[in-house]
Amino acid sequence: MEQLKLLINKLKNSPNKIRIAMVMGIAGMILIMISEVIPDKKRAPEPESGSETTSDEADTFRKSTENELRSLLEKIEGVGECEVMVSVEGTTEYVYAQNISRYTDEDADRKSDKLDENIVIIENSSGRQALVRRVIRPQISGVVVVCEGGGDIRVNERVLKAVSTALNISSGRVCVESKSK
């Protein structure tokens, strides 16, 4: 500790103290830059902007839609056992509730309108989280149904109508085929 005090006193009385301070400052900045470049092994890698979560949610949505549709179609007369594949576009999107306030700011010779938008945060037993106003599911882009009765034109038409009605998609996006034996 004594040596440190002596070193500081020498630096204070040195004619090159400005140069020494600059060198120490540059050395400090270099150390900071190096610490940002070298990865911290203790820190867990951050997921890329939630892309895994949203694709998992879209996959879950697709699979649950396929299961519900399969269950529904197998109850239709003549369909028999079937397999369903649903294609989706996009990912699950969340729309959060916001507090929006508008006000006019007037100075001596100018007037400006200002808008503040803040996401509503709620507290519950699991902590603080944003209030979700609406969840937008991925868009269904197509459906393929392979069923035992798919070769019969009447069954084919009933399946086509049921799928397009249940999923609110055009019948052109639905393909019904007969299952091979």
Describe the structure.
This protein has a three-stranded mixed sheet, covered by helices on one side. The chain starts with a helix and ends with a strand. Helices cover 39% and strands 31% of the residues. The radius of gyration is 32 Å and the shape is elongated. The chain has four helices and nine strands; from the N terminus they run αααββββββββαβ. It folds into two domains: 2-37; 51-178, 2-Layer Sandwich (GMP Synthetase, Chain A, domain 3). It has 181 residues and is an alpha+beta fold.
Which features would summarize this protein structure in a list?
GMP Synthetase, Chain A, domain 3, two-stranded antiparallel sheet, 39% helix, alpha+beta, 4 helices, 181 residues, three-stranded mixed β-sheet, single chain
Query: Could you name the CATH class of the largest domain?
Result: Alpha Beta
CATH superfamily of the largest domain: ANL, C-terminal domain
The main β sheet shows up as:
3 strands, mixed
In angstroms, what is the radius of gyration? 32 Å
Please estimate the helix content: 25-40%
Give the averaged pLDDT, no decimals.
Answer: 82
* Basic shape: elongated
How many domains? Answer: 2
Number of contiguous helices: 4
Strand arrangement, major sheet? 1-8-9
What ranges have pLDDT less than 50 throughout 5 or more consecutive residues? 44-52
CATH topology title of the largest domain: GMP Synthetase, Chain A, domain 3
Q: What proportion strand?
A: 25-35%
Series of secondary-structure elements, N-terminal to C-terminal: HHHEEEEEEEEHE
Instruction: Please state the second-level CATH architecture of the largest domain.
Output: 2-Layer Sandwich
The counted number of beta strands is 9
Based on secondary structure, the structural category is alpha+beta
Distance between the termini: 88 Å
